Amino acid sequence: MRGHDDRVGRLSADWSVPPTRLPAGDPAGSVGPGGGPPVPHEEVTMSEYDDRLARLSDNQRALLDRWLAEDPAGGAGPLRPDGRPPRTEAERILAGVWEEVLETGGIGADDDYFALGGDSVHAIVIVAKARQAGLALTAHDLFEARTLAAVARRAAPAGPAEPVPDAGGGAVRYPLTPMQQGMLYHSAGGSTPGAYVVQVCCRLTGDLDVAAFRTAWQAVLSANPALAVSFHWSDGSPPEQVVDPDARVTVDTADWRDRTPAERDDAFARFLDTDRAAGFDLARAPLMRLTLFREGEHAYRCVWTHHHLVLDGWSQQLVLRDVLDCYMRLRAGRGAEPPARPSFTGHLRRLERQDGIDEEFWRDHLGGLPAPSRVAGPGCRDGRVVAVRRAEHRHRVSAATGRELTGFCRRHGLTPAAVLHGGWAVLLSLHCGQDDVVFGTTLSGRPEDLPGVTECVGLFINTLPLRVRCGEDTDVVDWLHGVQSDLAALWDHAHVPLSRVERGLGLGRGGGLFDSIMVVENFPAAVADGHEAGGLRVTEPRALVDEGYPLVLEATTGDRPVLHARYDPHRLAGGRVQALLAAFDDYLRAVTADPARPLPDLRAVLARDHARRDGAARGRRRAADRTRLTLARRRPATTTEGETP
């Protein structure tokens, strides 16, 4: 019937009221939810109704699932008919913030943060918006108290905002963030060409005004001092970043309209290699450039190359959004007018006052670790030195598994990030043969109490070691709650450089604690595939980057999570990486299918599947080797001059 059903569905104009299908004999609009008054709605065919439902956000879909669970007939009433409405001033303020950030409505005092789809990124935004509304709380409050009423009881009146220093008009010097310190150390050594060079690639379709495009980029650069920095260091003094108010961005162009599609693809791949290897002079701002390749009358490829020292992924999305908004205004005959974003210097000054390391925490977290966890084969002496060109594999989780993961997290008070980190811990433990493993996790690093932190551009992230014990005799859900707690505990230490953790505790000799990183991406304002601005359509956006580790696992959450592996092909076989991604799928299905499963049983199932898949891969390699040997035997022998004797 799908696509051919001409019955009518009712789509509410207010998502605090559930969509319903009209019961037989019910004239449109005569009945509201629970038999109450009618609500604003739109009547559409069932095929359009289904299409609309397919385009709902994760939180809207979860809200619908809850309505249907309460009333399968579709005539559901309020979100929690038996729940308490927010009554205190703090509850009402928080309810408004939750509804805005979590994209839902009708939140009651007893509603659970995780059941509504909350995670660590939402927590940062909620804490910031609550502070603007006069309430002070922390992300830990959301994770620990969970219900709206309990979180409201923890909230306190927000004090005056900490003044944020301005960058001023001339060249200004600032310290480095922990992540910048590590990146600078590896970038300045020169042993890894292209390390930490980020290439954001996309296609642009439309009537591109190159001059307006260039002006938009320059306007955003000039409005964000964090984009106009260079880096300087000398023996005996700490490195500094210096803001250059006169920095100018370059936009190079090339016309490829006379080339075939295959020629363009080959040339583009060569350009990416050359561009990455060229890197940047870190002492000269700005550490960014753009290149446009025209492939048709209204078709371009765009590459925004910048150094990771300057931006993290969250900030990258803010910059792209600002550039496209400025371009749209310029095309409409107005000024660029980029938004006045909060200064990154407030974060840098705060870091200067946090120049300490909680050695007791790190001893508890990492003490007694039997050995570093290695996924890659031997390479250069420094475990982080990798090949210039990274290999990559992507694996998209099925829609069914994605839905099961979302429901599993909401039911059990977990974030997708905790489940994904647990997955890599189990797979790493099987790969290394260790029950006790450690790997890097990338934290957002955005201090929730810093004014305007969600809208600030700069490098906030930090990568720190996450230790996970996979040999515990407990069920999967309890174990994942432990992983989630350990992840949350790292938030308070996001200002500490990894090098200080390793050095301070005498760890990491011979290449560091780990050689793999897990990154869970969930940006609140991402420029999505298909974004349009000023007559331009942005498609196929992707970011290429070498983070300096043999294996980086990047996961995006949502209806169909994507697992993206970037790795050093000199130290990891592509087949092994693909097998790890497939095993991740096995893990997600097993966890969501039986949450009460004991952790040892889960490991046994995954180990059996891994052995089966590994055996099949070895069989394919042996067959390929036999084929190559047969071909070699049949090939005529040649002399040293290359002639058949």
From TrEMBL:
Keywords: Phosphopantetheine, Phosphoprotein. One of its GO terms (biological process) is secondary metabolite biosynthetic process. Its cofactor is pantetheine 4'-phosphate. The keyword Phosphoprotein applies. InterPro entries: ACP-like_sf, CAT-like_dom_sf, Condensation_dom, PP-bd_ACP. Gene3D superfamilies: ACP-like, Chloramphenicol acetyltransferase-like domain, Nonribosomal peptide synthetase, condensation domain. GO terms for cellular component: cytosol. Coiled coil: none annotated. GO terms for molecular function: catalytic activity; phosphopantetheine binding. Residues 610-628 have a biased composition (Basic and acidic residues). Residues 1-43, 610-645 are annotated as: Disordered. PANTHER family: FATTY ACID SYNTHASE, NONRIBOSOMAL PEPTIDE SYNTHETASE. This is Peptide synthetase NRPS3CT.
